[in-house]
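=== How it folds ===
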Amino acid sequence: MRPLRFHWHRLNEWLDDLGSARAFARVRRDNALGRLLFERARRHGAAADALCPPAGPGGEPPVEAAPPEWDPDLWAHGGHTDLHPPPGA
């Protein structure tokens, strides 16, 4: 018959193996979540860049990203969603 100490060590070995397996599973899950969030951020960034391209090398936005000019006639008929005219208009 084996001593009780042997069984105690085997139980602790089994618990440590179980804990390490769970820890590695948690790391794999967190890595998968990180990759998912990174890809989602890239998709959202690409969608935002498609709507309004980022600034050029000099810091100025490209021409196609400029808002439409404010026109009092369009604004009076609901053509603009701006609530306030630009300064000096």
